[in-house]
């Protein structure tokens, strides 16, 4: 299941070098992941009803090309792989010219709401990774 989110870079996201501040890319990726969860019908309330939350534990990002104010960007999120309690989403940020601006692998863990400990990935989430393997 792939999700795409289109955004436009705002003036408040620019640093003193005249391009997008590096920390903003992490925010863009977060927006992309939220879009992925929403399109996958795994809303925050749905996960809570299962007794879990997801927690980001690692982000490995490559900054490849600068983005500037007014640039139109597409954030794409796809499932990469799943373990027992953790899973990895692959994300890219591409500009309107088709240039790869950043890519990342984001590892998250499913956490039990009550115990605050990692918990096996529920089937509703795992199925999204199984579909990619076909």
From TrEMBL:
Gene3D superfamilies, per database record: Hotdog Thioesterase
Keyword Cytoplasm: no
Keyword annotations of the record: Hydrolase
Pfam families: 4HBT_2 (PF13279)
SUPFAM superfamilies named in the record: Thioesterase/thiol ester dehydrase-isomerase
InterPro entries for this protein: 4-hydroxybenzoyl-CoA_TE, HotDog_dom_sf, YbgC/YbaW
The family this protein is said to belong to: Belongs to the 4-hydroxybenzoyl-CoA thioesterase family.
NCBIfam families: YbgC/FadM family acyl-CoA thioesterase (TIGR00051)
Protein name: Acyl-CoA thioesterase
Organism: Paenibacillus oenotherae
């Amino acid at each position: 299941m792939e999700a795409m989110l289109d955004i436009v870079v705002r003036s408040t996201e620019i640093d003193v070098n005249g391009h997008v501040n590096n920390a903003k890319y992490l925010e863009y990726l977060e927006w992309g992941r939220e879009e992925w969860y929403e399109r996958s019908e795994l809303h925050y309330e749905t996960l809570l009803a299962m007794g879990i939350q997801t927690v980001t534990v690692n982000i490995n990002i490559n900054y490849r090309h600068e983005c500037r104010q007014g640039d139109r960007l597409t954030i794409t999120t796809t499932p990469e792989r799943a373990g027992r309690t953790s899973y990895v989403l692959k994300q890219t940020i591409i500009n309107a010219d088709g240039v790869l601006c950043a890519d990342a692998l984001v590892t998250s863990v499913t956490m039990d709401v009550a115990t605050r400990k990692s918990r096996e990935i529920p089937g509703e989430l795992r199925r999204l990774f199984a579909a990619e393997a076909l």
